[in-house]
Design brief:
The protein contains 8 helices and 16 strands. The protein is an alpha/beta fold. It has 2 domains: 131 residues, Rossmann fold, CATH 3.40.50.720; 202 residues, 2-Layer Sandwich (Dihydrodipicolinate Reductase, domain 2), CATH 3.30.360. An 8-stranded mixed sheet has the order 8-11-12-7-13-14-15-16. Strands 3-2-1-4-5-6 form a 6-stranded parallel sheet, with helices on both faces. It has a two-stranded antiparallel ribbon with strand order 9-10. Strand 5, helix 4 and strand 6 form a beta-alpha-beta unit. Helix 3 packs parallel to helix 4, helix 5 crosses helix 6 and helix 6 crosses helix 8. It is globular and about 70 Å long. The protein starts with a strand and ends in a 9-residue tail after the last helix.
């Protein structure tokens, strides 16, 4: 079987640049008999010393300090955009015009207006774009989506999702760009929780949001004080068009937490629960089973999703092995490259990215004004 090389460029050598590269290097080992092969062609980082270090560490063929070099390169097929949010629009639109397929880390950009310009550019092109929503690609969350589509939950009666961190509690800790105006917990953490909810229960028709910024100023890495501080905590009440009500919470000041993403969905026929701290398991309640003396068979069932991906994955590591957070990133990147190689539409494409931007902007406007907002997804 002929194998097609897909030449990859990665822009940004921070945490997510490393994660995307880790996923790319893992694909040939974890997915058997692929007819495509990712090739680490070029790493771009604003500081050439970082680019050189990353090239040597990860095995890229070349490096550069100018991401615009990618625009003229005919030998690059796919580009990972792993830069701060405020840089996404210029990069993504330029890459679209250059005919590159784009794998962009969430969020798509910082505002709905900016997301609209990216969407317009994408519509005028045939490139494929995926927003990185790695938590969609764990076996447990994929199984949750299946159960909803199969009608096993019935009509939605209630739902919630929470994504809790504690990294912003310390007032003396120097901030990064995610704590400034181009970041915030809504764009950073709530984006994941909202994306899961929207795929489980649908996009909310109404949103009411309240936020909190713990400290009015924080130290920078340069030893100065920054007052352009984004929200640390957000709580949203969401109403579906059906009338069902739920909530979403995201926090970076939740003392005692680590990387705790959970969701619950309740319906007339069943219910679901998931906890990222136990990523191998999905809890399912079958409400169609009758009550019986001593409980019968009624109750939450823990489905052993573990590493049970279908072929071409699922053999290494063995499907009974526990999965971790990074496994969702690996399967997400595999799914995108499979779409590029076989001319399919990505699961989390430009329309999903735009609708998520609309929901997050409605939440931010609600927090700023104290009013209920109706997201415009069109």
């Amino acid at each position: 079987m002929p194998v097609k090389d897909l030449n990859i460029a990665v822009i940004g050598w921070g945490f997510m640049g490393r994660m995307h590269t880790y996923a790319l290097r893992a694909l040939p080992l974890m997915y058997r008999d692929l007819d495509f092969r990712p090739r680490l062609k070029l790493l771009a980082s604003g500081r050439i010393e970082n680019a050189r270090a990353g090239m040597n560490e990860a095995g890229f063929e070349e490096c550069t300090s100018d991401w615009r070099e990618i625009l003229e390169r005919k030998d690059i097929d796919v580009v990972s955009v792993c830069t701060p949010n405020g840089l996404h629009e210029e990069m993504v639109i330029s890459l679209i015009k250059a005919g590159k397929h784009i794998y962009v880390d969430k969020p798509l950009t910082t505002t709905l207006e900016s997301a609209g310009r990216i969407r317009d550019a994408a519509k005028a092109s045939d490139v494929k774009i995926a927003l990185v929503m790695n938590n969609r690609f764990l076996p447990a969350t994929i199984r949750a989506f299946e159960l909803v589509r199969e009608g096993r939950i019935g009509d939605i009666t209630g739902f919630n999702a929470r994504y809790l961190h504690s990294g912003s509690i310390d007032p003396s800790k120097p901030i990064g760009w995610k704590q400034t105006g181009q970041g915030g917990v809504i764009l950073d953490l709530a984006s994941h929780a909202l994306d899961l909810l929207c795929n489980l229960v649908g996009y909310p028709a109404q949103v009411y949001c309240m936020t909190n910024t713990l400290y009015p100023e924080r130290p920078t890495k340069q030893g100065t004080l920054c007052t352009d501080i984004s929200e640390d905590h957000a709580v949203m009440t969401l109403r579906l068009a059906s009338g069902a009500v739920g909530f979403c919470e995201a926090s970076k000041i939740a003392t005692g937490t680590n990387d705790e993403l959970t969701f619950e969905v309740c319906g007339t026929k069943g219910a679901l629960r998931f906890d990222l701290m136990e990523p191998g398991w999905l809890w399912f309640f079958n409400n169609t089973l009758p009550e019986a003396p001593y409980g019968g068979e009624r109750g939450f069932k823990r489905i052993e999703c573990l590493g049970r991906y279908p072929f071409p994955s699922g053999s290494f590591p063995p499907p009974k092995n526990a999965v971790g957070w990074e496994r969702g990133h690996i399967h997400s990147y595999y799914s995108f490259l499979d779409c590029v190689a076989h001319d399919k539409q990505p699961l989390c494409g430009i329309e999903d990215a735009y609708r998520l931007a609309a929901l997050m902007e409605a939440a931010r406007f609600s927090a700023q004004t104290g009013k209920l907002f109706y997201p415009d997804y069109d």
